[in-house]
Design goal:
43% helix, 4 strands
């Protein structure tokens, strides 16, 4: 919408400007949707003892908006007229909402492993391995049969769509498989917290949390990086991979005694960070 233009309806009824080019004018069909929404608000708001603005800010206003879109563009949204007039009608149809907190959410960063070097490294997380996990999930969710079979299926855009639009997830926590170093993980901590912050900004609520990464095999450098993640990124929880050794270090250097010693240091630092 143009700067300064305001609309009372819950859903946009015209194209939005990208602040570089002015949007095209509102189409007749879009105007018809807006008129229907406002007319329904004028009709129902007094019956409910609400102002038009109050009605449009509640679930009845959203139901009226979806009904208007169905009327103009054809039925797409599963909504009944009674749901615009009675907030309890939707709850009766849908039942009591189930609270779902998914603490193991994954997507793949667009910048992950651009040269596909992980494909030849023993024990690494390659792009093909990640796509294989997605393919295996089709047995659990037949809807994934419509996948494109590309990394776009694992992108953050599709991640947000599937978590918050296609599922009933209430709150989620972004996590990630490891990389040789935290910054080379499938999703680095800085990106996990950025996506978390954007989702929470758009929803104006705390719908997403984010992991910080713990890599004990890196020793003091990891302890310092944990401090940075806690102070600058405000991570919500920690995820540790004690065996995620660097490709530049021989695996014996991360043997049981070394990892045990490093883990004790990390555990002490994690407790200190949590206490502060």
């Amino acid at each position: 919408m143009r700067q300064g233009l305001r609309s009372a309806v819950p859903l946009p009824t015209r194209l939005v400007s990208n602040e570089e080019f002015p949007p095209i004018p509102q189409t007749p069909a879009q105007r018809q949707v807006e008129d229907r929404i406002l007319a329904e608000a004028e009709r129902l708001a007094p019956r409910l003892g609400l102002s038009r603005r109050e009605f449009l800010s509640k679930s009845g206003g959203m139901a009226a908006s979806l009904l208007a879109m169905n009327a103009v563009f054809g039925r797409f949204f599963d909504v009944l007229p009674v749901e615009a007039a009675d907030a309890a009608a939707f709850q009766e149809r849908s039942g009591v909402p189930v609270f779902i907190f998914d603490v193991q959410l994954h997507y793949v960063s667009a910048g992950y492993d651009p040269s596909n070097a992980e494909g030849s490294r023993k024990g690494a997380v390659s792009k093909q391995a990640l796509l294989g996990l997605r393919r295996n999930s089709r047995r659990l969710n037949p809807k994934l049969e419509s996948d494109r079979g590309t990394m776009a299926d694992l992108s953050w855009e599709n991640f947000v769509k599937e978590v918050f639009l296609d599922s009933e997830t209430s709150i989620g926590l972004i996590s990630t498989p490891p990389g040789p170093y935290p910054q080379e993980a499938v999703v680095p901590p800085k990106e996990m917290t950025h996506i978390r912050d954007e989702i929470n900004r758009i929803t104006q609520s705390r719908r997403m949390l984010a992991h910080g990464l713990v890599s004990p095999q890196l020793g003091q450098a990891d302890l310092d990086f944990m401090d940075q993640q806690a102070a600058a990124l405000k991570v919500d929880a920690w995820k540790a991979y004690t065996g995620a050794c660097s490709r530049r270090r021989a695996r014996p250097a991360c043997g049981a005694s070394a990892c045990t010693r490093d883990c004790r240091s990390v555990r002490s630092r994690t407790t200190t960070i949590r206490a502060t």
